[in-house]
Write a structure and sequence with these properties.
The chain is mostly helical and 289 residues long. It is flat and about 70 Å long.
């Protein structure tokens, strides 16, 4: 028995060691592009590509000039615009998703199931399929170019309710007896939602906030179409793409790398601080509702 137990433990340790080695290799491969980006952002030599990996001159000038030299590429303005868009979209989208999910989880009404299925099917189609039609509609009502920021916000929040599925699954795990007890005590639907359900739904709220914030933060396709031609209204993705133009890439490539590092910082901080709630929201909302 002892030999069998020892051999079993040795086999488990060997399997765990192999898994850890594979995970380390995958992590190194996954982190290598970001590590390369950081090195390029600290490179003092100009040029889009070099024949060596480590910078020969180390400097923080790329980060400093990113915020001080705004004559051609106004990164601080793009950063502020993207932050405003992301915050507004996050507030509106989170509100819509939570309200829609709670209604679909708790209320029973005619056409509820077909409506859920319809939104689920429509959500499977990528948004860029309707990009041309959306652009011309926004152009007709004057929400492109100078008013492109408003148009972008409308585009980002237009289909918010179709992201109900995970959030609804989480609400389904909260016992309905809590709602019924509160209703017996005289509470209305609004009181039940805000005073009872939301305090118990912190993980899914955090998950919804993070996903809503990340989507417009690095979005390029719709932004490049709606605000194209107006550099003052570029978001970060469109602005940084213009740094890679053939005429400017050699001069601004290292500054582009510095900007990419700066852009990744807010998302990284948010994710690491709220990772526990994010995972709970995903796992809690994955049940079948």
């Amino acid at each position: 028995m002892t030999k069998k137990f020892r051999s079993k433990k040795a086999a488990e340790r060997g399997a765990n060691a192999a898994i850890y080695i594979i995970l380390v290799i995958i992590s190194v491969i996954w982190l290598f592009p970001f590590f390369f980006l950081v090195l390029q952002s600290l490179r003092g030599e100009e040029g889009a590509s070099t024949m060596y990996f480590w910078p020969q001159q180390w400097t923080f000038d790329n980060y400093i000039e990113l915020f001080t030299d705004t004559d051609k590429f106004n990164f601080p303005r793009w950063y502020g615009i993207t932050l405003v868009i992301s915050v507004v979209v996050t507030l509106i989208q989170t509100t819509i998703v939570l309200i829609t999910s709670y209604a679909l989880s708790r209320l029973r009404f005619k056409m509820r199931k077909p409506l859920m299925n319809l939104m689920l099917v429509l959500g499977m189609f990528p948004g860029f399929m309707s990009m041309t039609a959306v652009y011309f509609i926004l152009k007709l009502v004057g929400l492109t170019q100078n008013m492109g920021l408003v148009g972008l916000i409308l585009v980002y929040v237009a289909s918010s309710c179709m992201g109900y599925y995970i959030c609804k699954g989480f609400f389904d795990t909260i016992p309905k007896s809590l709602d019924e007890a509160a209703r017996i005590d005289g509470a209305n639907r609004q009181t039940v939602f805000f005073k009872i359900i939301l305090p118990l739904a912190k993980p899914i709220i955090i998950y919804t906030i993070l996903t809503a914030f990340m989507a417009p933060w690095g979005e390029y396709m719709f932004a490049s179409l709606i605000v194209n031609g107006d550099p003052d209204n570029f978001n970060i993705a469109v602005g940084l793409w213009n740094m890679l133009d053939r005429e400017t890439i050699n001069e601004y490539f290292t500054r582009f790398c510095a900007a990419s590092v700066v852009v990744s910082i807010p998302i990284t901080i948010l994710f690491f601080c709220l990772q526990r709630y994010y995972v709970q929201g995903v796992t809690g909302g994955s049940v079948k509702g």
